[in-house]
Design goal:
Length: 272
């Protein structure tokens, strides 16, 4: 298992600072957050071939893997033209990922539009995932749909993965979201274990009212990372545990603490 972090934790850092931080705090990989003007890493579909070559070389020179490109793509969209546009943008991200040697794109199902049946939304998501994934054939790029939005429950997520029925469609298992929606870690894992290629991690204390969780340091909340790591070790998971913290605490606070705790869990689970 690799340790990774999404660049939301350090939006003010440029690519050099991001890679230096990964090395300093003991991370093997980094997940750039794309489709936002608040990031300075340059990992965007608008980048030129020359810029892409420079980004790829920078990662290779640092010995850091690009674990995933986190996009904003979603597909539960009522308007057919807008939905098709999202698929086309996804295809451009597949090309970007392939150019950069990155094997994973994070995508969303999205929230269910008002007036749309959930069953219809799932159909749109499944069809869109398949259409986009066809552009990844012949590459090592996987579309990893996240347990998020209307698809926080792992069984709902897997329904659209099965609908897509494409080898380049996989899962980004955000280990918190199924738990905040009442699913145990073990139950969620049983649903996603055969398709998970990337994970998002962040700890939190479950709220008594309204659902959700209040973020806290890794290992200090109700999201059982130790169990999640043991479950992933049981299938010899070789992907990344990528920390996602948006506008929370400074990277200098969470990155070393998270790495220390998760490294201990990984070593114990893998018998190191």
């Amino acid at each position: 298992m690799q340790l990774s972090f999404m660049t939301w934790v350090c939006p003010d850092w440029d690519l050099s600072q991001i890679l230096t931080g990964a090395i300093r705090y003991g991370y093997e990989s980094v997940e750039p957050r794309a489709e936002t003007d608040q990031q300075k890493h340059g990992v965007e579909i608008e980048s030129t071939k020359k810029e892409r070559a420079g980004i790829k070389a920078a990662f290779e020179d640092a010995g850091i893997v690009m674990s995933c490109i986190a996009t904003s793509r979603r597909y539960a969209i009522a308007d057919a033209k807008e939905r098709a546009e999202s698929v086309e943008i996804t295809k451009r991200f597949i090309e970007l990922a392939d150019d950069l040697g990155c094997h994973h794109l994070r995508v969303f199902g999205g929230g269910t539009p008002e007036g749309m049946e959930f069953s219809d939304a799932k159909k749109y998501v499944g069809e869109s995932l398949r259409a986009a994934a066809e552009a990844a054939e012949g590459t090592e790029v996987y579309l990893c749909i996240e347990t998020h939005d209307a698809y926080c429950l792992a069984d709902d997520l897997m329904e659209v993965v099965r609908m897509a029925d494409h080898k380049n469609v996989a899962v980004c298992w955000d280990i918190m979201h199924p738990v905040t929606h009442g699913m145990s870690m073990e139950e969620a894992f049983e649903h996603v274990k055969d398709h998970t290629r990337h994970c998002h991690i962040h700890d939190g204390k479950l709220k008594d009212e309204g659902g959700g969780a209040e973020l806290c340091l890794t290992g200090e909340g109700d999201i059982d990372h130790e169990t999640a790591v043991k479950l992933l070790a049981s299938i010899k998971f070789e992907g990344a545990l990528s920390g996602e913290w948006i506008g929370w605490v400074p990277p200098e606070e969470i990155l070393p603490q998270n790495a220390e705790v998760l490294r201990r869990y990984i070593n114990e689970a893998e018998g190191v």
